[in-house]
Write a structure and sequence with these properties.
single chain, alpha/beta, Rossmann fold, five-stranded parallel beta sheet, four-stranded parallel beta sheet, 14 helices, about 40% helix, binds phosphoric acid mono(formamide)ester
Length: about 325
């Protein structure tokens, strides 16, 4: 693996899930793989889980991690090629990224979408400019349209839970449900979850949301879209709860309908479904306390599994570098 930006960078998802679970069983088994190597983690937006799990994963591979909160502590970067830099930006990514490429062996970047310009966000200018100019492998810690480490973690968590619940011989039903929120949030987690579940191909996949919250079909194609949440949740084995802002009316909040919040009552219609959320979560807005604190919630396990996802991905990239695979 030469980079990790989306599910399309992963040739064999089940094998990568198994690799992550192997690390969970034996965290230090490759403790020298990253010896004398450094990962630089650039944050243009806030994070807790992604930042800390990446650092823990790197440490368990014997690798040093350096965190740089670029948006708070660095120079304001320009990303447009050919820009006349007489405004607020101070340094061009074309100048900064090659330096980072010399300081580090792997570069990891977190950046959110503007939610103002759909085309610009879809073009993934920021992460693509780092890929273009850094000259080293790049890992997405969430970008304008995707959150691949989160979605990979989600599949690891589902696989683990399937084994624990003896569901291995059942065709799974996974439901991604929109939830209300007070702010306009990116579509990244939902896009990415849809992309990974579709590519994985081991479940019946249903997406439910109010009309107007259709996601980019590039990621949802293959899933059943159901606007009646009750119907969608029937017999579900896993429910992934997430808010996203509208994609067609780009970045708009079209509804805050609280009847879409997942409650214990709604779980009664499911196959004792396990409930997932990437966190952070707005309690009693997206999900009720009783669900989050109840026996069906996988949220802590899911967030904890971020370490094994990051470790498997970094290890794959280190192996590719060590074998000099083009
Ligand atoms: N789920 C997730 O990416 O969490 P953080 O924003 O805290 O990294």
């Amino acid at each position: 693996m030469k980079q990790f930006i989306s599910a399309n960078d992963v040739p064999d998802i089940p094998a990568l899930i198994q690799k992550a679970l192997d690390y969970k069983a034996n965290p230090w088994k490759d403790e020298n793989l990253g010896k004398h190597k450094r990962i630089g983690c650039l944050f243009l937006n806030p994070s807790m889980r992604t930042r800390l799990s990446t650092q823990v994963a790197a440490k368990q591979l014997g690798m040093e991690s350096v965190i740089f909160n670029l948006s708070q502590e660095g120079w304001a970067l320009e990303f447009e090629d050919g820009a006349i830099m007489n405004g607020t930006t101070v340094e061009h990514v074309k100048d900064a990224a090659p330096i980072l490429g010399n300081y580090f062996d792997i570069l990891a970047v977190r950046t959110f979408p503007s939610l103002l310009n759909k085309e610009e966000d879809n073009n993934e200018l920021i992460i693509n400019q780092f890929i273009k100019y850094a000259g080293i492998p790049v890992i997405s810690l969430e970008s304008a349209t995707m959150h691949p480490l989160q979605s990979f973690t989600d599949l690891i968590t589902i696989k683990e839970s399937v084994a624990e619940q003896n569901l291995a011989n059942k065709k799974l039903k996974i439901v991604l449900t929109w939830a209300p929120h007070v702010k306009a949030l990116p579509q990244c987690v939902a896009n990415s979850f849809a992309q990974w579940v579709n590519k994985w191909g081991e479940a019946d996949f249903v997406i439910t949301h109010p009309e107007g919250y259709e996601l980019n079909e590039e990621y949802t194609k293959g899933a059943a879209i159901v606007h009646d949440q009750d119907k969608a949740l029937a017999e579900a084995d896993f429910i992934y709860v997430k808010n996203w802002s509208a994609y067609n009316d780009y970045g708009q909040v079209l509804s805050t309908d609280q009847s879409w919040m997942l409650t214990q009552e709604k779980l009664k219609k499911t196959n004792n479904a396990k409930v997932m959320h990437c966190l952070p979560v707005r309690r009693n807005v997206e999900l009720s306390d009783e669900v989050l604190d109840g026996p069906n919630s996988l949220i802590t396990k899911e967030a904890s599994n971020r370490v094994w996802a990051a470790q498997a991905v970094i290890a794959e990239i280190l192996h590719t570098m060590a074998n000099n695979i083009k």
